Amino acid sequence: MVLVWLGSATIAWAADLEVGGGGYPDLDDALAAAASGDRILMNTGVYPGAWRIEQPDRLTIEAKPGASVRLSASVAAVEPDGLLHAVGIDLTLRDLELDGNSRPGLRVSGGGRLTLHRVDLHSASRSAGGGGVAVDGVGTSLVVAGGELHDNASGADGGAVRVGDGASATLLGVRLAANTSGASGGALWCDGACDVSDSRFLANAAGGAGGAVFVASGASFGIDRAWVCGNEAQQQGGGLAFSQVTGWSGSHLVSFGNLAHQQGGGIYLDGQSSGTLENADFVGDAADQQGEAVYANGASGAMALYNILFTDLSSQGLYGPAVAVDSYSSDVTGAFTGNASETGGHSAAPDYVSYVDTVDCEANDLHLAVGSPQLGWGAAGHLPYLGALGEACTPVAEVPGDGIDQDCDGLDDCFFDGDGDGYGDSGAAVVHGVGLACIGPQEASVGGDCDDADPLVSPAGQEVPLDGVDGDCDGTELCYADTDDDGFGAGDPDFPSATLDCSGAGAAPVDGDCEPGDGAAYPGAPEQCANGIDDDCDGEIDTDAVPVTWYRDNDGDGHGDPADTVEDCAAPQSYVASGDDCDDLDPDRYPGAPELCDGRDQDCDEEIDEGLVTGVVYADADGDGYGDPDASAEGCVGQGYVDDASDCDDGDGGVHPGALEICDGLDDDCDGQLLECDLGRGGIAEDEPRSGGVAGCACAQGGASGGWLLLGLAGLAARRRQQGSLTRPGEPRSVEK
Fold first, then answer.
1. Cα 499 from Cα 545, distance rounded (Å)
2. Are 452 and 429 in contact (CB under 8 A)?
3. What φ, ψ does residue 28 adopt, rounded to 5°?
4. 3 state SS of 72
5. How would residue 682 be classed by pLDDT, with cut points 50, 70 and 90?
6. How far is CA 334 from its chain centroid?
7. pTM across the whole model
8. Is 714 helix (H, G, I), strand (E, B) or coil?
9. How far apart are CA 264 and CA 240, in angstroms?
10. Omega into 562 within 30° of 0, i.e. cis?
């Protein structure tokens, strides 16, 4: 059983099924063999195809550690299924690249659950909604944790993700960039229940409303700790747009450089929408019409904003029936219009850590610098203002390099990078980053450097074979493969050894092995005679070889006389390699020969008649297979003895149990009865009954006919004595025991 920690859930897999690398040849074969709870591990490679997965009910597909795996949509990836469709199952995809190849991406339906963990989904295109992922059906859900959804497109709603009515989606720590939709929701279109946190929406575009996100009528929506930057809508809401949505909420939102070609450069609410936003920054947003930062249409809806910064706006930053409590606006004269108002406003400008007056989503750090006047704002009943990217939190253990402030000090911890190669020493003490970024001197967001004093050594370093240095920090050195463990390798030095000196199993520091499958052949090995192998790898066979001893085989049984030998590389005629014959003049005697009951040692083990069945045996003098009960001995069957004692005349081979009874005055079949002719009564004497009712003989009274009959029978008996017993068909004949 394999365990993994993800978030707060512990997952147990029933079995691991490997694809590639000696496992299943492709994903289809592994899916056909998978059972509920199994995990499919993918080796490095590109796997083209299109998959509709309806069973098992719970399954994980992920890349093996260190593997680079790309699932690429083939020509079979068409709507509605696309690259992969999970139907009514709980499917997790982890550490994979999913290439839509300009074809429909993923789909989950039928009440199933699709989890994307550290997945890179890109280049998918769907004419219907949800170019990257379509989430359809009541009870169906999508969870995206980490990873990226970028460069996906939809001809309708939701360039990256479309969540249908009754479905749900959770986005945690996701980067959504350069996605486009022909209608609304450049990155995300939500008609169900959607929750977004610790995520970035960058440079997405919509042909309708909601350059980054569009929330439809009746949906529920929450957004927390999000960066919405550089998105564009041809209609309303350059960043976020809401249509008939009530009660949505958001916090710690940065809306930076978004553009709406109608109203609401940052956020747009129609007349039936309302919501609450706290601790947010609107920086450099723009709209061709009203509300550069926020537009609230207002017929029945309204928006409440707490602890808000409006920076670098030209006019009409907040428009509509909205109230900003404890806020700042750089545009004092036109910031609040269309029934918008301000309570507890501040005039001091914020001091950001790093702000460049351009729409460069990756070049600005909008954390409030130490000493910024906005730190400590606190609208009644709302969080103290620490800036949109900061928060009041419960301190927990910091995770270095993840861009999140877990211990609530406003900074992320970083790995110490002593050699400046971009990788830190995981075992060294951590250092504080610049805000939540590890961009300062000797800071790295990634650990794993196995030699932090050598800039050429890191997880991204180049492995140099046979140099005794783990250049890429994978725990191995590249050596020659030594498949026969003779200390010499062959081929290119590309075998990964766990020992840096190439002394581990299957590895060698030198090459030159001319017979990689023979452990007795290697440079310097003793040359052997007549084996057809260059044992010492000098390019010649049998040179300087030690001669082989051959043994004469006089009887041709394959075993030679140990006393009659010659020395040569090749076997002379009538000589063999084995010299273990105990009698080289008898072909029936040699090691392994079957032992006979004859008083001799057939198998050359210095034992006689061993292994044979012994006991009381009886002499069979006439060789008819039946023994004399009066001539017994202790021994084994054979050499004139049998294990039968039923012969009534062991001197006559024609007399034994089962023999043919004839009219000869003898008990031929040893049943205790004689066949006699009673001539005194002048009648015919019949033989005792035979099978089938056939009479054996008849004797006539007196006369020539009777005499001739007896004479003929006497001749028959004589011939039988010469030829052996007369037997009926199916009776045993005399055999040699």
1. 36
2. no
3. -60, -40
4. strand
5. very low
6. 62
7. 0.54
8. helix
9. 8
10. no
Could you tell me which residue, 300 or 302, shows the higher pLDDT? 302
Length of the chain in residues, anyone?
A: 737
Q: For residue 256, which phi and psi values (nearest 5 degrees)?
A: -135, 115
d(CA 507, CA 499): 9
Report cis status (omega within 30 of 0) of the bond before 509.
no
Q: How do residues 349-402 score in pLDDT, each as one tens digit? A: 677 766 766 666 767 666 666 666 666 665 555 544 444 444 334 577 888 888
The CA distance from 460 to 449, in Å, is: 9
Give the residue with greater pLDDT, 571 vs 726. 571
**Taking phi first (over 0 means left), then psi (-120 to 50 degrees means alpha), and beta for anything else, what does residue 237 get?**
left
Q: Which of 117-121, 470-474, 711-715 has the lowest mean pLDDT?
A: 711-715
Question: Averaged over 475-500, what is the pLDDT?
Answer: 87
Radius of gyration of the CA atoms of the chain, in A: 49
| pLDDT for 692 beyond 50 | no
SS3 31: helix
Sequence-separated (6 or more) residues with CB below 8 Å from residue 117: 6, 62, 92, 93, 94, 95, 145, 146, 147
> Which pLDDT tens digit goes with each residue over 309-341?
777 777 667 777 665 655 555 544 445 544 455
Which secondary-structure segment (H or E) carries 705?
Answer: helix 703-723
Contact 53, 6 (CB under 8 A): no
Which DSSP string corresponds to 219-283?
A: -EEEEEEEEEES-EESSS-SSEEESS--SEEEEEEEEES-EESSS-SSEEE-TT--EEEEEEEEE
155 versus 728: which is more confidently predicted?
155
Any idea of the CA torsion for 718, 722, 723, 727, to the nearest 10 degrees?
50
Beta strands in 435-533 (DSSP E): 443-444, 477-481, 490-497, 507-508
**Residue 723: partners with Cβ closer than 8 Å, 6 or more residues away:** none
The tens digit of pLDDT for each residue in 432-486 reads 655 566 765 577 888 888 888 888 889 988 888 888 898 889 988 899 988 888 8
Indicate whether 528 pLDDT > 60: yes
Segment 45-57 shows an average pLDDT of 95
Token pair for 153: 């497109």
Compute φ and ψ for 713, nearest 5 degrees.
-70, -35
Query: Could you tell me the CA-to-CA distances from 201 to 39, 178, 313, 498 in Å, in that order?
Result: 31, 9, 20, 43
Q: What is the pLDDT of residues 164-209, one digit of tens each?
A: 999 999 998 899 999 999 999 999 999 999 999 888 999 999 999 9
* Burial (CB count within 10 angstroms: exposed 0-12, middle 13-18, buried 19+), residue 621: middle
Q: What's residue 347's pLDDT?
A: 61
**Going by C-beta distance under 8 Å and a sequence separation of 6 or more, which residues neighbour residue 330?**
310, 311, 312, 313, 349
Alpha-carbon torsion 48, 54, 55, 57, what sign?
positive
- CA–CA gap between residue 176 and residue 170 (Å, rounded): 13
**Tokens linked to 712:** 């003929």
Distance CA 380, CA 247 (A): 19
Q: Helix %, strand %, coil % for the chain, to 5?
A: 5, 35, 65
E strand or H helix at 128: none
Q: Can you tell me the distance from the alpha carbon of 662 to that of 710, in angstroms, rounded to the nearest whole number?
A: 11
Show the tokens assigned to 168: 């749900």
| Contact criterion met (CB below 8 Å) for 265 and 291 | yes
Q: Can you tell me the distance from the alpha carbon of 179 to that of 230, in angstroms, rounded to the nearest whole number?
A: 12
Cis before 56? omega within 30? yes
* Cβ(250)–Cβ(220) below 8 Å: no
The SS3 call for residue 5 is strand
Pairing mode of beta strands 641-642, 614-619: antiparallel
